[in-house]
Amino acid sequence: MSEAPSPNSTLNPNPPTTTTTTPPSFTGSCYCQSTRYLSTSAPSSLTHCHCGACRKFHGAAFATFADMPASSLVWVAKEQLQVLQTSRWATRGFCRACGSMIFMRYDWEADRVGVAAGTIDDASYDPESFPKPSAHIFWRDRARWWDVADADADGHGDGHDGLQRFEEFSPGAKGVMERWERDHADADAAS
Predict the structure, then answer these.
(1) Could you give the CA distance from residue 7 to residue 182 in angstroms, rounded to a whole number?
(2) Of 54, 66, 129, 130, which residue is 20 to 30 A from 40 by alpha carbon distance?
(3) What value does the mean pLDDT of the chain take?
(4) d(Cα 117, Cα 48) in Å, to the nearest integer?
(5) Cα–Cα distance between 12 and 82 in angstroms, integer?
(6) Can you give the pTM of this predicted structure?
């Protein structure tokens, strides 16, 4: 993994710390508090990702991300924030000091960011403004040791938590990603 330049200055750890007069919707930090942020908007969704990369980066059965506009993410302390291009289409940020995963952004959605929900400060959580988790993505890659009550009383596999399950991305995200990959392949071929 090599360090990738962040095309979105909101996620770039190098500019000066941003200040805002907008009251935060919520705040968050890494384990050691060296990397801290606030968001000026509530998340639009929470999603559990079971892909192998998320499981390995988070050391858990899945990672839960709170999706929001990238422009609403304001870095309060970012000296230890490391931003890496971790796949051909994903950028992640983590704290160099303690290793906490802080955010993930798909390259085809530079205007969106998913903060690792575990980094959200409990004191800033507002059940009135936060959505409940809505889906599991990359269900096919889930940890085999994670025992899920997979069938309800009538035998359907809609699961114990009632959330939608997608084998890969949700259908809407998959379409956007495929168009982005096609456009980039066309641009690469033209150059």
Answers:
(1) 20
(2) 54
(3) 81
(4) 10
(5) 9
(6) 0.78
Strands (E), the chain: 2-3, 26-29, 36-39, 45-49, 63-69, 73-77, 81-85, 90-95, 101-106, 112-116, 133-137, 164-165
CB 26 within 8 A of CB 117: no
User: Pick from 135, 110, 114, 122: which is nearest to 48 by CA?
Assistant: 135
In the 8-state DSSP scheme, what is residue 132?
A: P
Q: Is 109 helix (H, G, I), strand (E, B) or coil?
A: helix
- Hey, what amino acid is at 162? G
In terms of Cα–Cα distance, which of 57, 62, 65 is closest to 144? Answer: 62
Higher pLDDT, 137 or 159: 137
Question: Nearest Cα to 15, choosing from 6, 26, 27?
Answer: 6
Handedness of CA 165, 168, 169, 175 (dihedral sign): negative
Q: Which two tokens stand for residue 147?
A: 């025992």
- Is the distance from CB of 102 to CB of 119 less than 8 angstroms? yes
pLDDT at 2 over 60: no
- Which pLDDT belongs to residue 149? 60
Between 153 and 8, the higher pLDDT residue:
153
